[in-house]
Amino acid sequence: MRGSLGAADHSAPDADRRARAAAPDASMRPLNFTVRRPMPRAGVLIGTFVAGVATALLALYVALRTAPGIVEANDVADALAVVAGPSLARFRTGSVVYVKALAGPDLFGKLQSTHPSLRFKSFSERPEDKGCESTGDSVPMAPCERDDFVKLEVLVAPTPRTMLVAFGTSNTYGQVLLVKLWGRWRMLVDRSFVI
After folding, report:
1. Scanning 48, 59, 77, 183, which has the fewest C-beta atoms within 10 Å of its C-beta?
2. b (16+ CB within 10 A) / e for 90-107
3. From the CB of residue 120, how many other CB atoms can be counted at a distance below 10 Å?
4. What are the C-alpha distances in Å from 70 to residues 8, 45, 74, 83, 159?
5. Helix (H) / strand (E) containing 176
6. What is the C-alpha separation between 87 and 187, in angstroms, rounded?
7. 172-181 and 119-122 beta bridge pairing
8. What element of type H or E holds 96?
9. Has residue 136 got a pLDDT over 50?
């Protein structure tokens, strides 16, 4: 009995060795697994959105608080002269151009210096224009006004170096966003429409 047990004990390690040799090495098998990242929770997404909105509102508040209480007349005249430039470039030499703006004499001086071949007058001096009046059954087709004027108006100056200006002529109108860089007003966005 002792002999059979001893034989069984000796044969068991051999069987284990043969089983391990037949089985492939665990270190040689390819590992197939994917790492799944946990999905962000709704609270994190909402918190990020609220933080972004709060930052934008804070930036807008700071910009409006630092805006000038009063826009200087010289800045307004400079900005309006820049906006009027493209519209005035199409007038022939010697043309009289009527300007409607609240900037006053400062603007006329700037326009005269940048466009010396034109003569500028206040819009209030413009002769009556009946081109857009309907006569009987006919309705005038646009543009119907005389092409001899430029209308300019500052809509808003939200920060010390930005200004939104509206403009209009007999056949175009639009708005221009200006930015003051290195002491000069420059057009950042020009949204013009032809009538």
Report:
1. 183
2. ebeeeeebbbebebeebb
3. 19
4. 106, 42, 12, 20, 11
5. strand 172-181
6. 14
7. unpaired
8. strand 96-100
9. yes
| C-alpha–C-alpha distance, residues 153 and 80, integer Å | 8
CA distance 114 to 120: 12
Cα–Cα dist 169/86, whole Å: 11
The residues that bridge with 189 in the sheet, in sequence order, are 177
Instruction: Specify the residue for token string 């929770």.
Output: 41
- Residue 28 corresponds to which tokens in the numbers above? 């040689």
> H-helix or E-strand containing 99?
strand 96-100
122: which 2 tokens? 């206040």
Residue 144 is classified by DSSP as: -
Q: What angle do CA 76, 77, 78 make, to 5 degrees?
A: 90
Candidate from 28-32, 103-107, 125-129, 137-141 with smallest mean pLDDT: 28-32
d(CA 150, CA 165): 13
Helix (H), strand (E) at residue 45 = helix 42-65
Structural element, H or E, at residue 83 = helix 73-88
Backbone angles phi, psi at 64, to 5 degrees: -70, -35
Domain range summary for the chain, segments of one domain joined by +: 39-68, 73-127+142-194
State which amino acid sits at residue 165.
Answer: V
| pLDDT tens readout for residues 100-121 | 998 778 899 999 999 999 999 9
